[in-house]
Task: structure prediction
Amino acid sequence: MRPSRLTRAAAFTCAVLLLSACSTAAPSSDSDVRSTDGVLADARRRPRTTTTLAPTTSAPSTTATPRPATTSPAPTTTVAPPVAPNGPTTDADRCAQLRQQATLNPARFHPSSTFNQPAACIGVRADSAKWSSTWFNFANYPSRTDASKRGHISVAFDAYSTPVYSTEDATTTVRVFTPSWGWGHNLGANNVIPWNPSWEPAAGNDLEMMIVNPTTGVEYGLWLVQKVNWSSCFTLENLLAGWRAGVDLCVGAAGIGKNPDGSVSDHRNSSGFSQQAGRGMGNVLGMALLPTLDEIEKGSINHALNMETYATMFGPACTPTQLSTSAAGVDCGYAVAPASRLEWSSGPAAECGSVAQQNTPVSRSKTVPEGMRFALDITDQQIETWLNGRGYTGAKRNTARIFAVALRDYGWIISDTTCWESSMAVEGVANPKARARWAQLGITTPASDGGSLLSGLITNEGMVRTLESPAPDLYVNAF
Result:
């Protein structure tokens, strides 16, 4: 059984008494929770070196998103954001239209990836109304007492974002080591990655970042990057392996992206699924579901978006018998495809302190399974009306429109757990180049813009549809 984030942090603090930057002690008040809100890093960027436990239900399908031959990288030409046709169309027509539009600004990973399928190409769940209502009313902690907060989505431009760095900007290489309480790495004996000493992780408890090779499509994920407070790596095992204090890189976890078959992934032709956990929902690559500047600058986001949510379903895990009864989601928990695991298999995340969900049927019935996909039901005219109401103009208006259209055309997948609200991580501003590019897109104050950019977009549960899963699998395994 993996230790909880709180347990790992407590052990680390006792060992070194230094790592204030990533302290994860339970908040003493709701305001503390708000200030440290973000992904509970139970699985993100956390490759494991132990054998993965098999799920109690069928394994994730690997045929739904095959790895065909390499395709060419995304073009660099600017395209207009996709727009809905003026007249009525069938879902099949809309599906074909969106797929065609996506060829002008291709998303990472192969077009057949489940993450790159337009919402119009996916059926609506028979119980859509139930799950849409649950997400709208309970996904955010504040919405449980303040109706005006229901349906709100923040965009993590700064804290709890995912800074992305290019290997083209690397000036050296660095060896990577992890502390005894960490989650290791999958780099093998050659634990060396491209590096630039100026690179910084995102602010927040998780201190994470991605390094991407634009030529080969290879990605490296780093979590809990300790550029200053590296003493936690001062272990006998690391010393025997040649660790050099203050020279080598100390991280909570590190990994090179790998496909389910163990081969190194390539974002140009991989499915987006991975051999090991890259998000709370399980085995997806770190760059999957992440909105990037390259695509937004070209006018559209043509893939599903990550959604880090307060009300993710928790255990105890359902038994095979319970999965087929009304107990599922009330007395016990599960996840749905494309998730591959139940992140909180023993109960709710205790790390959330005073606002932690309670391990009761009532609390569990207010959650949604990780892996569940939703889409916004809204017209272009309604988006324009919302933009007018927000007073958006220029570049910021266009950026807000791009996100709204993506939430409609591709939707969002419940991917991780937070302690406060629903938040979408994007390519983060810890990278100075990214900060400048976001400013050109109208995001000049990332921290405040992130909380307000999409305010008022989703005003009632009827605007949300719950989409069918790509496979019928329900998951109750912890890893």
